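so my prof wants the structure for this chain in the tokens format not the other one, which i didnt know existed until like an hour ago. anyway here's the sequence
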Amino acid sequence: MTEGSGHVLVTAVGVNSTWGKTMALVSEAGDDETPLQQKLEVLAAAIGKIGLGVAVCCFIAQLIKWVPEGGAERQGRRGQGGRVLVAAWTWAWDRCG
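here's what i got, hopefully its the right format
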């Protein structure tokens, strides 16, 4: 319909409308978590722990590969390998702790 006129009979507005009644019921329900939300929270925590474990394993693997290859000495930073490791450890500790 592109043109014309019509009449509407309004039977309820605000809290008396269907939308208002629905919103009142939702606000009465509170912030209780549903069983699905609780399960998803557990799943998200597990995924986070697995991701952290994989990240730590990758870091250790790269470190094991980096040190025998000469580490900082190979990159022209002779004598700074220990400083790099301390900086990496400090950064990781600050993020996780």
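also thought this was worth mentioning. Residues 31-96 form one domain.
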